[in-house]
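Interim report to the steering committee. The following record documents the input for Polyamine-modulated factor 1 (249 residues).
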Amino acid sequence: MAEASSVNVGSGCEEKGPEELSQESARPGTIISRVKLFDTMVDTFLQKLVAAGSFQRFTDYYKSFYQLQPEMTQRIHDKFVTQLQTSIQEEISEIKAEGNLEAVLIALDTIVEESKDRKEPAWRPSGIPEKDLRGAMAPYLLQQRGALQRRVQKQEAENRQLADAVLAGRRRLEELQLQAQARQQAWQGQHSTAMAAQLHVTTARHLYSVYFRMTSRVSAYLQHSFPVTKACPESGPVTWSQAQIPAIV
């Protein structure tokens, strides 16, 4: 009874064994999903593993403890079997998730299903490794060469666009330099003309100021040094000799 209960705990659910699957696959028109086949294979493995570790064999190894605590031994065996199944199922689930096994098996089923409608014979090796290698690698290499050529053409087109943009920028800079030089020359011409006119006006003003100051000083000196008296009608106008007028520096 203990062995039967342990087997039932290990199975968890009723699954078809390999014999039933082989009989079902032998039926005409029957298609078995590879995912289902894989799950059934795992469950069958767990069932056989639990059967191999039966309670009777467990008590043979722990006979003394079983004689002292038979119920405790039964509970320990049941818990051991349950944890063993759980750990194995978790490990298999992680392997399926890491390798994306379900998607791969479904894709394989799809390929097999689609290949049924093909009338041409499937590829078979010719027996010449060089020929088979060329036949297998040539399409891939041609595809890669086409992709590289398209990428090179795209890059060359981008390079031409960049070169045109650089040339346009250089022409724009040359035009701006010419405009700047023309404006600089025009400004220099206007500035030089204005400076010459300003210098002429300033010089004229300075000369006029010097002349005015000298004239004022001469007049003041003459009036101060040689006062002019009224001339008598009989004697005529008063005149000074050249020696009487001192030199004014």
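The two ends are 154 Å apart (CA to CA). The committee is asked to note this result when reviewing the revised timeline.
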